[in-house]
Write a structure and sequence with these properties.
This protein has 17 helices and 19 strands. The chain is an alpha/beta fold. It has two domains: 220 residues, Rossmann fold (3-Layer(aba) Sandwich), CATH 3.40.50; 267 residues, UDP-N-acetylmuramoyl-L-alanine:D-glutamate ligase (3-Layer(aba) Sandwich), CATH 3.40.1190.20. The strands form two sheets. The chain has a twelve-stranded mixed beta sheet with strand order 8-1-10-19-18-17-16-15-14-11-12-13, with helices on both faces. It has a seven-stranded parallel beta sheet with strand order 4-3-2-5-6-7-9, sandwiched between helices. Strand 3, helix 4 and strand 4 form a beta-alpha-beta unit. The chain starts with 8 loop residues before the first strand and ends with a helix.
Length: 496
């Protein structure tokens, strides 16, 4: 299923449980939902691997196993060779799952106990072990089955969520299934879109199981996927009488010794999305070098707070951090900007300097854009702790620093002052290269300079940046450079 056809709304594990209860209370029995889920999963299997006629299904002792029993029964009835393994105690099955197990066995399919068997014959493996209710670490018997599935090198279809992935955080709970495709139902789980969720889920297929959304309308989504429709008309068509003064003046503060390229990339990105003017405040010895690389940039010497303050009188938004460094000059620049009434984007080394400050105070609009390592420093945690629960991390950052927060990474998150949480499921691993974050900073600054409110500019900036990265990767992800995004950014912003 194309991402454009997926719902925008994302839900937590707890919300999914509430939604399931609401649906049953509204009159759709759980046993019926299992039948529909198993049917959709089977149809996904046959359309994805049409040549396959042998499948292996691993079922857990929860409701996820019930979906697996349905799929196995339908496959058997369609003439497939079906092997079904039970992991965990089948005596603990709920009545709905037991109903489908009995129907499977009545069709002549034998239920085998999983005792560490390996899977090496040509087949598709169906993961129906653990669903969205997983809380703690995966038990040893399930870990053994998961490892055998991953070791088989056979294609794997996961039902609802890859076993071992936390539905809320996307973290692996000790061991997780690496699925080729995942079928998920009714609502989308936010853990499928960030942290380790996307790479373990593979191709995502969704079906509402004929459940009207009105059945759970009282439960607001925890998060929203960024989609094209949210940004249509954000930048209106320009008047024929417009001039550069209409579209803002961005100031990039950074480009310390040996790091001029970072400031250059941020400045070029702001120009690429339509900023009227872009200046760079940097070291005396390096300012002239930026002129040579990009004559459209206005470069200024700012060795002291006084020199920087003079420049601030002429700009509309400041982005600090690209190539800033962490020396005395860098810290002096940041402290000066924190006292400014201008909107401020804080990125890269400015975040590392900020983490060393005892207090944070900036009353004007601002956004911080940390990657997990920088977020860990700001929160005095480890990067692993941040990645284990990116949602908790971004809320903690917003409480501590206010403003808008962009937590970069696989499934970048954006949280504004109104606690509206957005997620970007675009982008690719090829963007893990130097300067990409500097480009994002420039894009957000350039959009805000044109009058887009900073929270919306942050959302749109992340989205455009990720889509530009995907366009740059059309011929492969290796070797993508930050500079290669510029012409894609211009094309994308003009398509809004």
């Amino acid at each position: 299923m194309e991402r454009s056809t997926l719902p925008q709304e994302l839900y937590t594990q707890e919300q999914v449980a509430r939604i399931d209860r609401e649906i049953v209370q509204q009159g759709i029995p759980a046993v019926v939902l299992m039948e529909r889920a198993g049917y959709f999963a089977f149809k996904t299997l046959t359309s994805t691997w049409p040549e396959v006629k042998t499948i292996t299904v691993l079922c857990g002792s929860g409701n996820n196993g019930g979906d697996g029993y349905v799929l196995a029964r339908l496959a058997h009835q369609a003439g497939f060779t079906v092997m079904v393994y039970q992991v965990g105690n089948p005596k603990s099955l709920k009545p709905e799952a037991r109903t489908h197990l009995e129907a499977l066995m009545a069709n002549g399919v034998k239920l085998l106990s999983y005792q560490g068997q390996t899977f090496s014959h040509p087949t598709v493996i169906v993961d129906a072990l653990l669903g969205v209710g997983l809380q703690g670490a995966v038990r040893a018997d399930y870990q053994k089955a998961i490892q055998a599935m991953n070791d088989s090198e056979e294609p794997i279809l996961a039902i609802d969520i890859p076993s071992g992935i936390h539905a809320s955080t996307g973290a692996s709970m000790g061991k997780a299934v690496r699925a080729s495709a995942t079928t998920t139902f009714i609502v989308l789980k936010q853990g499928l879109f960030t942290a380790e969720g996307p790479q373990y889920a593979g191709i995502l297929k969704w079906n509402d199981l004929q459940v009207p959304s009105s059945f759970f309308a009282s439960i607001p989504p925890a998060c929203f996927r960024l989609v094209d429709a949210a940004f249509k008309g954000t930048l209106p068509k320009r008047s024929r009488s417009a001039h550069k003064g209409f579209f803002g003046h961005v100031l990039i503060v950074g480009g310390n010794f040996g790091m001029q390229g970072a400031a250059l990339l941020a400045g070029e990105a702001a120009l690429s999305v339509g900023a009227g003017r872009v200046s760079v405040a940097t070291r005396r010895e390096t300012a002239h070098l930026l002129y040579l690389a990009c004559p459209e940039l206005m470069c200024h010497t700012a060795e002291t707070a006084r020199e920087l303050s003079s420049i601030l009188k002429r700009v509309s938004i400041v982005a600090v951090g690209p190539g800033l460094g962490q020396d005395r000059w860098a810290k002096n620049m940041l402290r000066t900007l924190l006292k400014s009434p201008l909107p401020l984007i804080i990125d890269a080394d400015a975040l590392n300097c900020l983490a060393q400050e005892k207090r944070f105070s900036h009353r004007a609009e601002h956004v911080i854009t940390p990657h997990p390592g920088e977020a860990a420093k700001l929160l005095h945690k480890t990067a692993e702790m941040v990645q284990n629960d990116r949602f908790s991390a971004i809320y903690a950052l917003q409480r501590q620093y206010g403003g808008c927060v962009v937590l970069k990474g696989n499934g970048t998150l954006i949280l504004d002052e109104n606690k509206t949480l957005s997620l970007c499921d675009r982008g690719n691993p090829g963007m893990a290269s130097a300067g990409m974050g500097d480009v994002l900073t420039g894009v957000i600054a350039g959009l805000h300079a044109q009058g887009v409110p900073l929270p919306k500019a942050s959302q749109l900036g992340v989205y455009l940046h990720a889509k530009a990265g995907d366009k740059a990767a059309q011929n492969g992800e290796l070797g993508i450079t930050a500079g290669s995004l510029m012409h894609h950014l211009t094309s994308l912003v003009n398509a809004l």
